[in-house]
Write a structure and sequence with these properties.
Blueprint: E1 9-11, H1 25-38, E2 42-45, H2 57-71, E3 76-80, H3 86-99, E4 103-106, H4 116-128, E5 134-139, H5 141-144, H6 150-156, E6 162-167, H7 173-180, E7 184-187, H8 193-198, E8 203-206, H9 213-225, H10 228-245, H11 252-262, H12 283-299
Parallel strand pairs: 1-8, 2-3, 3-4, 4-5, 5-6, 6-7, 7-8
């Protein structure tokens, strides 16, 4: 297994909309090229940051097609393909494989709390639709309502395409448990990237990475070089910035997109309802975020 391609900083890709709220293919390509220029390891496409649950299958396909048009051969691409039914998820999985992604990923089915054997069947059926592509479990119990367990992971690892876990649960012990079972683990909570890496995560997949990729790349380098004191200092600054990003009336991703615009980054539009757009009082907060990010980049 080529694990090197999964080691590093992998930003979660943001949804890109035009003024009418439709998927903006050119903005998707521009954002992809922007990430390539920042030197990140890869992109996680179609997850929470991509607002996947508010998009149709056709929209999600269009996003991935435009990402791959720019990123193929340049970045590791993990495509989140889960829908709340098996057939649609399989369709997205087969489509992702046809584009040549490195891996597909899936949360468990949401709303109904299914037993572990039903979740395993759902995941294996999705993986079966992309039989030549690595499969990654996305464990985010605080949103999905279902938590990965060791027995369920062991069952999934019987599938040779299942290679690891994107772990967005808060306990870092989970990373150790999944790693002990032989899984590649990606740290999910951005606020504890240093902890996840120290616990053995191969890298990180995060929703705020796109707002400040320079800081997360530097943090990853510091951990790998063994300079944990410097890494902790960067992590502290990232946490303060995250708190500020979340302090407005509007959704955090709306704030991040505004921050990118104000830092001369790609224009990704706003967010899709029912996510809250920015309110008038949020724009000064965006300015504060920009100042904090620029100051931290200059410091490190």
């Amino acid at each position: 297994m080529n694990t090197a391609k999964y080691e590093g900083i992998i930003p979660a890709f943001y949804a890109c909309y035009d003024a009418e709220g439709k998927i903006a293919p050119e903005a998707v390509r521009t954002l992809t090229k922007w990430f390539i220029g920042k030197g990140v390891k890869g992109l996680y496409v179609g997850g929470s940051s991509g607002e996947c649950i508010y998009q149709s299958k056709e929209e999600r396909k269009a996003v991935l097609e435009n990402v791959m048009a720019e990123a193929r051969g340049k970045l590791t691409i993990i495509a989140h393909v889960a829908c709340n039914n098996t057939a649609d998820s399989q369709e997205l999985a087969a489509h992702a494989e046809s584009l040549g992604v490195d891996a597909i990923a899936s949360i468990p089915p949401i709303y109904f709390h299914l037993p572990p054997y039903a979740i395993a069947k759902y995941w294996n059926d999705i993986s079966g639709a992309a039989p030549n592509t690595d499969f990654i479990i996305y464990n985010i119990p605080q949103l999905a309502g279902v938590a990965l367990s060791v027995p369920l992971l062991r069952e999934m690892l019987k599938n040779p395409r299942c290679i690891g876990v994107k772990n967005s649960s808060m306990p870092t012990q989970d990373i150790q448990m999944w790693r002990d079972e032989g899984a590649i683990v990606f740290n999910g909570p951005d606020e504890q990237l240093i902890s996840g890496l120290v616990m053995g995560a191969a890298g990180g997949i995060g929703g705020t990475y796109g707002a400040m990729p320079e800081l997360y790349l530097k943090l990853f380098q510091r951990v790998k070089s063994g300079d944990l004191a410097a890494a902790l200092e960067i992590q502290d600054d990232c946490c303060r910035i995250i708190s500020k990003l979340c302090s407005g009336h509007g959704n955090m991703y709306a704030m991040i997109k505004e921050v990118l615009r104000r830092m001369d980054g790609p224009d990704c539009g706003s967010v899709r309802a029912p996510l809250a757009e920015l309110a008038e009082g949020d724009y000064p907060i965006a300015d504060e975020c920009v100042s904090m990010i620029k100051a931290a980049i200059a410091k490190y």
